[in-house]
């Protein structure tokens, strides 16, 4: 079985975007925000948006199951206040939940959180609880920079975040560390901000005792870990310089890298540098890079091809495709077992 | 010959740091700032600080010439106003100039600029002129984020920066895009901020027409280009998605990556992905990572070992070690020729 741990609902029906526009326009206008009940998307529309897109590509590529979360760049936690984020997160999470109910064999949901700049992350707990307990979410996406590129939230090792971590540990649910759109003109969203956030989050883990406080907490660093694997010697050297334990002891028990790296040399480096137990198959399909690579004739984000072509032991490939994900996402494993898979 | 395009004067005599402390302490205190003439460092002290450190390691590693600039993390453009940065840059640049006079066969200077957040970069021109015309500097370090991690300066393609670019083109001098210390707790200086800046700058080049306006402008992206080579497929795909020309046409005529990547797999990736004409040998020695890698028994930053061990044609290796640097830094080439090298 092939499990893709990183898919977003980037193809939701237009009505979602229109509702969001009304919500954003209402901020500070004096007009009331639209109610959730004013968004009406039928099951047929949902089915079509998935069947023609993600599910079609999953079938073409042989991907069996995707951990499916709301569109990352649309989370936009910097817009409005907590109430705005809370209504928006509830709507987006419900849609992913519905997709997973319509296609239970192919999609399992992961939640966005109703984060808002300067607001206590504990306010996200009710949405998290609902998503895990009622919707069967197996993971959450945690945004380390809800400001959208201004980076004024405390680092991930700060106690600011501990209420979230306590709940994640209680539920045995990992967090993918994933920023949203950049409203800072310095940072292109998918070409700089995403990768920078991955590198930043990884280094925050290197310099902190976060995983001593939460030995069972698990972070998934998306986009192949940002710059970390390419600069693995630098990170090993910095850990040494800072008097920290080796990365294998201090960080790799709790952090995992996905395979959203869109060319063969990048995947080959990831496989060569990062222990196989820390690599999780993912494509982020349909995501930031949707085109066909003229050098290969295949989609850039068809990451399965790179992994199949990589010089990896078949047993290790199975870890990357399936068993690591079952271990890192125990609620996914439980769901698959209930399905007899 | 082996030319290291990226060395910093990280081993300056303590008096420099003490002078800087007095300068910083004076800001807003009502006390006068120390004068430049109050800093006294003799040639013997300079010689010793270099001979025992950078020059010793250059000899051990067979590096013939280093492009030598003030300590990057100490530039700290976010401290004080333009006058503070201007005095500090003048002092640091003069020291590198003196080092290059004391060791003309081994060091050639590159300048830091007296940038200051929110201040017109044109104010940096007099220092730049002095460094090129009087001190023989062959390059400058340009900080894309003088705020030190708040990233509130315009992107590098903004006309804000054009006065600098005009002067660089006039002098045929490249800019290394290099941030300084991070005062944002989210970003570890050398483990996140540096690499993020490299990735950010590269993506700013991808999305802009900067090099159409300045076809002769050259940027060196340090630290192996941040995350760019590891995610080369992503960047190629994003350029395509955004309707930009291929990277080879649009960016690689003007941008170059150094080899400050501190392990063999990273260097191997760089060599595999980036055209050899765009790779410049560098170590950033003595810099962020000073230790010995227990996996190899050698210094992490002994990057020559990785390049010697890489699967590269000898002619290509000569490009990386010497001829690319002579092409990208014509004033270095002229100086070497004057020396009969």
Fold and architecture overview:
Two copies of one chain form a homodimer. With 341 residues, chain A is an alpha/beta fold. Chain A contains 15 helices and ten strands. Chain A has helices spanning 14-26, 43-51, 54-61, 72-75, 82-102, 125-133, 162-171, 189-206, 210-213, 232-241, 247-250, 264-273, 303-309, 314-328, 330-338; strands at 3-9, 65-70, 107-112, 139-142, 175-177, 219-221, 255-258, 279-280, 292-293, 298-299. Chain A is globular, with a radius of gyration of 19 Å. The mean pLDDT of chain A is 98. Chains A and B meet through helix 8, helix 10 and helix 12 of A and helix 8, helix 10 and helix 12 of B.
Overview in brief:
Two copies of one chain form a homodimer. Chain A is an alpha/beta fold and 341 residues long.
Short descriptors:
44% helix, alpha/beta, homodimer, 341 residues
């Amino acid at each position: 079985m092939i499990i893709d741990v990183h898919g977003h609902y980037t193809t939701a029906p237009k009505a979602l975007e229109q509702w969001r526009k009304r919500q954003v326009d209402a901020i500070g206008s004096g007009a009331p925000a639209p109610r959730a009940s004013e968004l009406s998307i039928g099951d047929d529309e949902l089915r079509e948006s998935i069947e023609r897109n993600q599910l079609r590509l999953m079938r073409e590529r042989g991907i069996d199951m995707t951990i499916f979360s709301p569109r990352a760049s649309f989370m936009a936690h910097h817009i409005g206040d907590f109430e705005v984020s809370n209504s928006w997160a509830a709507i987006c999470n419900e849609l992913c939940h519905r997709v997973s109910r319509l296609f239970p064999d192919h999609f399992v949901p992961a939640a966005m959180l109703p984060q808002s700049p300067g607001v206590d992350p504990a306010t996200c707990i009710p949405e998290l609880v609902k998503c895990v307990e009622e919707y069967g979410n197996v993971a959450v996406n945690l945004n380390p920079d809800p400001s959208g590129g201004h980076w004024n939230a405390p680092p991930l090792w700060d106690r600011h975040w501990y209420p979230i971590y306590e709940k994640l540990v209680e539920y045995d649910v990992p967090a993918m560390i994933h920023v949203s759109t950049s409203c800072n003109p310095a940072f292109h969203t998918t070409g700089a901000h995403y990768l920078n956030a991955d590198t930043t989050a990884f280094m925050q883990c290197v310099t902190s005792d976060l995983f001593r406080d939460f030995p069972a907490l698990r972070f998934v660093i998306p986009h192949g870990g940002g710059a970390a694997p390419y600069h693995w010697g630098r990170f090993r050297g910095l850990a040494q310089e800072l008097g920290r334990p080796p990365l294998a002891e201090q960080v790799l028990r709790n952090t995992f890298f996905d395979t959203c790296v869109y060319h063969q040399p990048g995947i080959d480096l990831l496989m060569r540098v990062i222990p196989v137990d820390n690599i999780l198959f993912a494509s982020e399909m349909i995501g930031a890079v949707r085109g066909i690579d003229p050098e290969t004739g295949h989609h850039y984000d068809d990451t399965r091809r790179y992994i199949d072509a990589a010089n990896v032991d078949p047993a290790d490939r199975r870890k990357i495709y399936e068993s690591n994900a079952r271990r890192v996402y125990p609620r996914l494993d439980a769901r698959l077992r209930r399905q007899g898979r």
